[in-house]
Amino acid sequence: MAKNPRRLQQKTAAKVGEAKPNRRPLLSRRGKKCFAPGAGLVILGFWILTLTDPAGQNWASTLSPALLVAGYGLIGIAIVLRDPIESAAVPTAEPEA
After folding, report:
1. Is residue 78 within 8 Å of 34, Cβ to Cβ?
2. What's the pLDDT tens digit per position in 3-14?
3. Measuring CA to CA, which residue among 43, 23, 36, 31 is closest to residue 80?
4. CA torsion 16→18→28→85, rounded to 10°?
5. What is the three-state SS of 15-32?
6. In this structure, which of 2, 38, 70, 84 has its CB flanked by the most CB atoms within 10 Å?
């Protein structure tokens, strides 16, 4: 006898208004350590951007875009970066003497 697909959907579907718990945080510990300098570089880049001249011929016009790109790059890396697996979870073979 075939299983009824509607019954399976009803059993597995979440109730209306019921949210599934988030199993892992948005940022890992390493991600947070990478996110903070990235955010600092973005803030510094925008502050230096206020010092540029209209023609874009001074040092601030060259430095601020580089800081902004580096800061946003670090933020992107922080989002995808995960914590390393604990060494106790992975058994290692000891060399024989």
Report:
1. yes
2. 776 765 666 655
3. 31
4. -100
5. CCCCCCCCCCCCCCHHHH
6. 38
Cβ neighbours of 48 (radius 10 Å):
19
For residues 30 and 60, give the distance between their C-alpha atoms in angstroms, rounded to a whole number: 31
Cα–Cα distance for residue pair 61/53, rounded to 1 Å: 7
Residue found under tokens 């073979």: 93
CA dist 7 and 86 (Å) reads 41
CB 74 within 8 A of CB 38: yes
Helices (H), 1-97: 5-12, 29-49, 59-80
pTM for the model: 0.63
Q: How far apart are CA 11 and CA 7, in angstroms?
A: 6
